[in-house]
Amino acid sequence: MTVTIKDVAKKAGVSPSTVSRVLSGHPRISLETSRKVKVIMEEMGYTPNMMAKSLVSKTTNSICIILPKPAEELFSNLFFMELIRGIVTQASRSGYDVLISSGANEKEELEAVSRLLKGRRVDGAILLYSRKDDAVIEFLENNSYPFVLVGRSDRYENILSVDNDNVMAAFDATNHLISMGHERIGFVSGPPELIVSRDRLEGYRKAMQSSGLQTQPEWIVEGEFLQESGYRAMSFFMNLPNRPTALVAVDDMVSFGVLRGLNELKYKVPEDLAIVSFNNIPLSELSSPPISSIDIGIYHLGYTASQVLIQSIQKPDNNTGYTNRFVIPHRLIIRESSMRGPGKE
Amino acid sequence: MTVTIKDVAKKAGVSPSTVSRVLSGHPRISLETSRKVKVIMEEMGYTPNMMAKSLVSKTTNSICIILPKPAEELFSNLFFMELIRGIVTQASRSGYDVLISSGANEKEELEAVSRLLKGRRVDGAILLYSRKDDAVIEFLENNSYPFVLVGRSDRYENILSVDNDNVMAAFDATNHLISMGHERIGFVSGPPELIVSRDRLEGYRKAMQSSGLQTQPEWIVEGEFLQESGYRAMSFFMNLPNRPTALVAVDDMVSFGVLRGLNELKYKVPEDLAIVSFNNIPLSELSSPPISSIDIGIYHLGYTASQVLIQSIQKPDNNTGYTNRFVIPHRLIIRESSMRGPGKE
DNA sequence: CTTTGTGAAGCAAACGGTTCCATAAGGAGG
DNA sequence: CCTCCTTATGGAACCGTTTGCTTCACAAAG
């Protein structure tokens, strides 16, 4: 059925090896043969069999994305979409295919990774949002498979990773509120086992401190990257004796929850509570009022991750141990939700 | 390096074929050998090489998703994320991997599909949002590769597809507004080359007609699946001499645009204009006011597409020509944006 | 005791490429 | 005119599996 390299060879009156060489642009092939073979390939509609190619070359020209289980559970999925978009775009430019995989739990995830990497179905992996210690990372490292982490791990030092400077980002976000005149600023954090939560919290603390502002322990609440957390945090804050006039939320979804709550209670944003959050997902400018957010360059994050991974696949000698952490710049997008100071009490 | 079937065979003192048969659960292998081999596989950490397997079996256990170019351009991406989520979940349950691919234009797309299918990297494809006539569909059909279309094509009859009954959905949406007492109802459509636009428009027309309501030509405007279209449509409608009191929008993103516009002009929703749209993306309930929307079961759409595709890969004899169109049920989610009739003029 | 049937395992040929090594032709240098 | 490169190509082994056909041993049947 399918036309193979041998069929082409036969029709062209050359050997299979010659055809193969034409295909790969081997230098010692006469122009004449090359042309002839190419014409015949075109005529017969030849397409190389990737499986056969991979078998001998031990290379697949594809990478995989390992989604953490929360992705299955909807999570803040715009984030992932953007990331995937960046990855797929870059990979495709480098001639790589992208395979999406996920597992219901860490064990399943590990199985999937092992099957894909050891089974030589992909050449490398991109991991999203790692936990503190991670069997998957462990596995990949021990077998020295190429991989890059989107996010940061404080446990593993020398692994490739692409991330933002979340401490600095939170510092900037908080400083913005301070510069608008706010002094009582709350913080809604994410799950403490995620490093991103801790980094952002740290940045908030630093900003407060460096401006000589007190931060009350009750102004910091923990939650998830979900609306509910924002809703809950909001009602907690608003009942405080001297409640904050502004807050920094670890994720835009949290802000939406806060917004919904404030709306129900007829509070005004930013008059009664100013808000800044992170990620700048497309919704941020759609809410009313639009939310100020730190744009962390999600697409860029994915794009870079793919680039770094593919580079490391193609020349694995990059063990300088130097530039293995790539930091994507962030920027603050100021919108209505933080456009006013605490003023009118 | 990697441990192959031969290594296992040698260590177990059997032939490679025996190991292979143990792996595939061949009936004529003694329990004893089977156990022995399995232990050794475990010991040596054997993982089958998928490439070799695929080469001989001519099967890859993976499928691909072909994203239309607009996906690269952000589009209403929550839609795609949900769809992908459904596809990946189902595929993974069936033991299939999913490959994401896209091209900048139709030609590139075709190249990608050809490379993947003819190159035997995947066993089948899922196409999203097809244009009216499509070189990709043409190609897949001519080569009788398994594929399923998410959406509908009126040109190709016998292809597998998963879709909603968009005519009925629009009928329901419109009827809901009518039942709230609205009589002047506008419609914001999508690009006319997308079948989904036309179907929804048709449903709207039918509903109006079946209630004996007049539909003014100027109440129907064309746009894209984007906010801007909504914004523009809004300002057009609101300047009409006897403007509509309600409107149906072809996509939630359009509603957001409308909402933003109305907000700027200090109009109230639903008092001044009631709104219903389609897709029920997660944002719909986050806007203020929350938007009534037809939930078309995006996740389910993806899940089913994957299921249907894999089924057709595994037994391609399903040429009954009967059940090749799968319709996913929709349901109307009523929210604040359509909770009041035209009443107070 | 020889023939036939059956279950368990091995041999070797594929699958569609790549690549090392060998070879033939032709031209340059001695 | 013979030797030695160089260049363009062919031959064959190999990548890691699967699978049809054999083979072998042994028990049942004639």
From TrEMBL, chains A, B:
Q: Which PROSITE patterns match?
A: HTH_CROC1, HTH_LACI_1, HTH_LACI_2
HTH cro/C1-type domain residues are 4-33
Keyword annotations for this protein, in alphabetical order, are:
DNA-binding, Transcription, Transcription regulation
Xref: Pfam families: LacI, Peripla_BP_3
Task: State the superkingdom.
Answer: Bacteria
CDD domains annotated for this entry?
Answer: HTH_LacI (cd01392), PBP1_MalR-like (cd06294)
Alphabetical list of InterPro entries matching this protein: Cro/C1-type_HTH, HTH_LacI, LacI/GalR-like_sensor, Lambda_DNA-bd_dom_sf, Peripla_BP_I
What GO annotations for molecular function exist for this entry? DNA-binding transcription factor activity; transcription cis-regulatory region binding
HTH lacI-type domain boundaries: 3-57
Q: Which PANTHER family match?
A: HTH-TYPE TRANSCRIPTIONAL REGULATOR GALS, LACI-RELATED TRANSCRIPTIONAL REPRESSOR
**Name of the protein described by the UniProt record:** LacI family transcriptional regulator
